[in-house]
Amino acid sequence: MSTELKQVNKLKKTSRRNNNLNEKFIERLIKISRVTKVTKGGKKLSFRAVVVIGDENGQVGVGVGKAEDVVNAFKKAKTDGRKNLIKIPLTKSLTIPHGVVGDKGACKIIMRPSIEGSGVVAGGAVRTVLEVAGVKNVIAKQLGSDNLLNNARAAIVALENLTTKSQVLKKRDLI
User: Fold this and answer.
1) Would you say domain 2-86 falls under CATH 2.40.50.140?
2) Which residues form the S5 DRBM domain (predicted)?
3) Which one of 17, 69, 107, 164 is most buried, by most CB atoms within 10 A?
4) Residue 37 in 3-state DSSP?
């Protein structure tokens, strides 16, 4: 009996792994930084990776990982990004439905929809987040701090605040 249960559990685990592999996610590295922690015994060196992960179809997430080597930091950041995935609404012209503002720390991001063919007009980490999310036409402006991690997280906050017309109608009890 117990061997059959182990085999069933093993199959469930492999099917979960395969489901995660079947989804086509794009990972883009924003920044790798070398960080040190000063202890009584000296300085402890490690690396921090900031990664944006998305499927170019409305799903996007930002992940941060820290490890003693770059490869493990990148893997941890990818895992963290998958945990923090959000789904955003896109219009037919692959832009955002309305203007939106996102704040994180000292960073402020302003995003506005743009006409088809204008492309992604944004800088730094915000451009990366929008491209990985699948947004093709948008204008974005960063205000305040130029910290890459906070700018990426502020862009995620802004994208979380997006609503569709049907969501607004439902909220107002008009449907």
Assistant:
1) no
2) 25-88
3) 107
4) strand
